[in-house]
Design brief:
With 567 residues, this protein is mainly alpha-helical. The chain has helices at 68-89, 96-103, 107-135, 137-155, 162-181, 183-190, 193-221, 229-249, 281-290, 303-306, 308-314, 316-337, 339-343, 352-357, 360-372, 376-380, 384-413, 437-455, 458-469, 473-505, 509-548, and strands at residues 29-31, 39-41.
């Protein structure tokens, strides 16, 4: 008898929030209508009619079956580290000139303290994706935490030695990578689809707010006699709390889930926000005994497993997202890192506190936009037209901010010409009276807002690709995390190069004009090209994603497996 091909899955995003099955009754268990009598599990409480996705196992150690307090504790521990990492990344924005003067080095050597750890984190981020696939996420988090602890503690006593300062920052960069690339995967490991969105919003909001907001407080903290070291002393105090949370509140979330089709649900998932255990010595020891540093290992280590994350970086969708978001992202990083060079000398002579205040515009304008565009209202309406409109709008805002920032400053600092000009005037006589610092901050904020508007297309575009190419839900979630992490690694690597290279280019005001003009025009051209690719070859791009990531296997078409089966 000839096998009949299965009904093709719709290629339109968003995919349904539940499996393509029909419940036979509104109970905690139902059966698939495909004839396989596959058990379907539902939520509890107000989610009693929501089909659980992914379908959990009957093992209480399955992260999907953890009580809510345990899930939230794990999330809180990870977000506390994400917040500290974000603050560390931009800690030197307001003090680069101070470091250059104290150490007697060029400004380029000073910004290496920001660029080097960022570039190192791109390498360790990719390594973390690979290592977590083999040994799980918890040991990677713990090793990264130790690297950050060494770097932060060292950074509290490095004044007078640029070499030690650089080494301390590199240690921090060694730890940043894991918290840049693995946290999204941990959220996907522990929360069902109907619970996940608010946690992803919280993760993104914490990451953006701490990164953009750190210079506001860091500039004030660095105004005293201990300068930038105060920032790391403050971070050390918070890091101590985060370490305790990570060690005792963040178990391993990687789990080999096996769901039997006919196994009836017997496990009750607790919705309690507080633990109900008896607080005794035995209970504490039992809890601590489960918090092993290493409790997971993949069944077989092979080349395809190791190459999963690198292949995700090479996927065409990753490349298109990298191309269209790179210039605003790298431009924001490099211009923010050069603020101290532009505004510390005469005629501005800004100290670290007002230099940090220049990041008020990016913090106030970009953070709300970044959070708003991660809400389901936008994601549910993400179609090709909305996608292209977002790219055009984000490019327009970013280009206005980038061009405006450069042309405004250069125009204000140019010497007036003509009969009305003072022949003995110098640029030092201008500047502070002709440049409005709030306007400069606002224009930088537009660049940040445009960059994060473009970033809002990353997650839905990746999910659209993985839904198209992945054989089942577990593979789709894995590929989503890999592509997100890979894109983060690529952007950080190039942003670090921009940070190092820009000061030498804009040391003269004409250099600032040409650089911002070139990046603004280049971004418009790149966006036009990417929009054309998405408009004409969107499905072909997703097909190529499957081939590059080795997800297309014609043998799977002969099996009548659901997309929502486990890997």
């Amino acid at each position: 008898m000839e096998e009949r091909a299965p009904r093709p899955i719709s290629k339109d995003w968003p995919r349904p929030a539940t499996a393509a099955t029909t419940a036979t009754a509104v109970t905690a268990v139902s059966y698939s209508s495909t004839g396989s009598q596959r058990t379907i599990k539902f939520g509890t409480g107000k989610y009693a009619n929501v089909e659980l996705s992914p379908q959990p196992s009957e093992d209480p150690e399955d992260p999907l079956n953890w009580p809510l307090w345990k899930k939230h504790l794990n999330l809180g521990a990870l977000l506390s580290m994400v917040a500290l990492v974000g603050a560390m990344k931009t800690a030197y924005i307001s003090v680069n000139s101070v470091i250059a003067i104290e150490e007697g080095v060029s400004y380029t050597a000073a910004v290496v303290l920001t660029a080097a750890p960022l570039m190192v984190s791109s390498v360790t981020g990719l390594a973390s994706l690979i290592a977590a696939r083999i040994w799980g996420k918890r040991p990677v988090y713990l090793v990264s935490m130790v690297m950050i602890l060494i770097g932060v503690a060292w950074n509290t006593r490095v004044r007078g030695s640029l070499a030690q300062n650089t080494a301390a920052r590199i240690f921090q960069g060694l730890g940043w990578g894991a918290f840049d690339t693995l946290v999204l995967g941990s959220i996907q490991d522990t929360y069902f689809e109907h619970e996940r969105q608010s946690k992803i919003i919280a993760h993104y909001a914490v990451s953006v707010a701490t990164m953009l907001g750190s210079p506001l407080l860091g500039g004030v903290a660095s105004a005293g006699p201990q300068a930038f070291e105060v920032q790391f002393e403050i971070m050390s105090a918070f890091l101590g709390v985060s370490i305790l949370l990570l060690v005792f509140g963040s178990p391993e979330t990687t789990y080999n889930r096996v769901v039997l089709d006919t196994q009836p649900p017997t496990l009750q998932r607790s919705q309690s926000l507080w633990p109900t255990m008896t607080y005794t010595k035995e209970a504490a020891l039992a809890y601590v005994s489960k918090m092993k540093p290493w409790s997971y290992r993949v069944n077989e280590i092979n080349l395809p497993l190791i190459l999963q994350a690198p292949r995700a970086i090479l996927a065409p969708t990753t490349g298109l997202l990298f191309a269209v978001t790179l210039l605003p992202y790298a431009g924001l990083w490099s211009l923010a890192s050069s603020l101290s060079m532009l505004f510390s000398p005469l005629p501005f002579m800004l100290s670290p506190a007002p230099l940090g205040a220049l990041m008020t515009g990016p913090f106030l304008l970009a953070t709300p936009i970044a959070v708003a565009l991660t809400f389901p209202l936008y994601l549910r309406r993400f179609r090709p037209t909305i996608h292209l409109m977002t790219l055009v709008l984000g490019t327009a805002i970013a280009s206005i901010g980038m061009l405006g920032f450069g042309l405004y400053l250069v125009g204000a600092m140019e010497m007036p010409t003509g009969s009305s000009s003072d022949p003995f005037s110098t640029p030092w006589d201008l500047g502070i009276d002709r440049v409005s610092l709030p306007i400069a901050s606002f224009l930088l904020g537009l660049l940040a807002a445009g960059s994060l508007t473009l970033d809002a297309t990353i997650r839905p575009a990746i999910q659209r690709s993985t839904a198209f190419t992945s054989a089942n839900l577990a593979v789709g979630l894995r590929n989503t995390a890999d592509m997100h992490g890979g894109l983060m690694c690529l952007r950080n690597l190039v942003a670090g190069a921009f940070i190092v290279g820009l000061p030498d280019v804009i040391i003269m005001w004409d250099g600032l004009r040409m650089t911002t003009l070139g990046m603004g025009i280049a971004q418009i051209i790149v966006t036009i090209g990417v929009c054309g690719v998405y408009w004409y070859w969107d499905e072909n791009v997703r097909r190529l994603d499957g081939r590059v990531m080795c997800l297309i296997d014609l043998s799977i078409l002969k099996r009548s497996a659901s997309f929502f089966d486990t890997d």
